[in-house]
Specification:
92 residues
């Protein structure tokens, strides 16, 4: 159930972002964030079903790292930078 709610929220977030911003770059960034959020929600669901505390903690930490990585990737996309630094913005 948690997975369904998280996935629905991610889809809704992406849809709202697509409606509010016409920029393809912003839409792509919103999709990056939504995908990271959905993956993090899956990890948290797995943590809730973990057999022991160590596994649970590791999965919660991985969920947090996934959210942070998604936000960073989305911010980089919005800024026009890509991971290897050769974007058109950096070439100027």
């Amino acid at each position: 159930m948690k997975l369904s709610i998280g996935f629905a929220m991610a889809i809704g977030t992406a849809a709202l972002a697509a409606c509010n911003n016409n920029s393809p770059r912003e839409q792509a960034a919103a999709n990056i964030e939504a995908n990271a959020e959905a993956k993090a929600d899956d990890l948290e669901q797995a943590a809730g079903e973990a057999a022991n505390d160590a596994t649970q903690d590791a999965l919660y930490n991985q969920a947090d790292a996934t959210r942070q990585a998604g936000e960073a990737a989305a911010d980089a996309n919005r800024a026009g930078a890509d991971s290897d630094g050769n974007s058109a913005r950096n070439a100027q």
